[in-house]
Write a structure and sequence with these properties.
310 residues; alpha+beta; six-stranded mixed sheet; 10 helices; 11 strands
Length: 310
């Protein structure tokens, strides 16, 4: 019954004596290693001769042969060790030393085809990665979203703190955007958001900047290693290009075309400052830009909050 079970098993099975002679081998094992049948002709032969002659089927034959020897020498069970063949097949290998009482009488090898399982796992990882990437993007503008910006801020903050380099953050929004939506409708409002997003992307194209839609009509740009002057220069370039694009906005009280206002915060991060503080202070600077006329850039000041208008 045991012999019939082994010979009909879907797993590749081989049992060896302590001297590495084949005691039991089935057809599935022979098929896996492209060993011509019938299997019973190999009973009594040294198993390492079979492996040596058919090792080229393996992706890493030298490693395979080495692990076989070390496994037999250690006599320690292994489970689910992955073996890859050059034909793309992947097998999980088990090894069990066989004892009768305390006497070692041989060892058992079993190979299971897990190719489809590994492919399914790979496909699932790719799908999850794609979903993760989609969850980090803003569906309307194609920019990074607030979640991804928050994660990137933590990364850049840690790096800037370690290297003692400046980190700047620009937060800007579209002036009188609610009035724009009320006047032209939300579909046109979405087009306006996409247009402003494209302008921001084009301005920072060659810069190590991280651009995101922060929410609603607000956009955030993280500028690693950028000092205050560089941040102002970039912010002003975006402001000017939005104004020059000439998107009609008759409901604006500042200009009859779409404009933006922005707030900037620059800091050399330290351990006693939380990363989110750079966002809060840029937001205060943005509020000051709004309060003092809009269509302008304000810079946060530690001594006098957001009092520097550009």
């Amino acid at each position: 019954m045991f012999s019939v079970m082994v010979q009909n098993a879907k797993t590749g099975t081989m049992i060896e004596t302590p001297e590495r002679e084949v005691a039991v081998i089935n057809q599935t094992f022979c098929d896996m290693f492209d060993i011509p049948g019938p299997p019973n002709q190999y009973v009594g032969l040294k198993s390492n001769q079979l492996f040596l002659s058919h090792a080229p089927m393996l992706k890493d034959p030298a490693r395979f042969l080495k692990t076989v020897e070390s496994t037999v020498y250690s006599k320690e069970s292994i489970v689910d060790e992955e073996i890859t063949f050059i034909n793309g097949k992947i097998y999980a290998r088990d090894y069990i030393p066989i004892y009768e009482g305390h006497v070692y009488i041989g060892h058992y090898w079993e190979y299971r085809d897990i190719t489809e399982k590994k492919k399914a796992e790979c496909d699932l990882r790719k799908a999850n990665k794609k979903l993760e990437m989609l969850s980090m993007k803003d569906g309307l503008t194609g920019l990074n979203n607030r979640r991804s910006l928050d994660k990137q801020l933590e990364i850049e903050w840690e790096y800037a703190q370690k290297e003692k380099e400046p980190l700047s953050f620009l937060l800007f929004d579209i002036d009188y955007f609610k009035a724009y939506n009320d006047t032209y409708g939300h579909i046109q409002g979405d087009e306006c958001l996409k247009e402003v997003a494209n302008i921001a992307k084009s301005v920072v194209f060659d810069e190590p900047a991280f651009v995101a839609r922060y929410g609603g009509e607000e956009f955030g740009i993280l500028l690693p290693r950028a000092n205050q002057y560089e941040a102002i220069k970039m912010a002003e370039a975006i402001r000017q290009q939005v104004e020059q694009r000439g998107i009609i906005h008759q409901a604006s009280d500042v200009f009859k075309c779409v404009t933006i206002s922005g707030g900037i915060m620059t800091v050399v991060p330290s351990e006693n400052i939380p990363p989110i503080s750079i966002v809060h202070q840029a937001d205060q600077a943005l509020y000051e830009a709004k309060r003092t006329g809009q269509n302008r850039i304000s810079v946060y000041s530690h001594h006098k909050e957001a009092d520097s208008n550009v």
